[in-house]
Amino acid sequence: MKTINQLQQIKNININEFQQDLIRWFEAEQRELPWRQDQDPYKVWVSEIMLQQTRVDTVIPYFNRFIEQFPTIQALSEADEDKVLKAWEGLGYYSRARNLQFAVKEVYEKYSGIVPNNLKEISTLKGVGPYTAGAILSIAYGLPEPAVDGNVMRVLSRILSIWDDIAKPSTRKIFEEAVRQLISHVNPSYFNQALMELGALICTPTSPSCLLCPVRDHCHAFHEGTEQELPVKTKNKKQRHVQIVAAVLENEEGKILIHKRDNKGLLANLWEFPNTEVHLPNVNEKSQLKEFVKSNYAATIQVDELIGQIEHVFSHLTWNINAYKGRVESIMNETEALKFVTVKEMENFAFSVSHQKIMEHYIASK
Question: What pairing do the DSSP bridges indicate for beta strands 240-250 and 317-328?
Answer without folding.
Answer: parallel
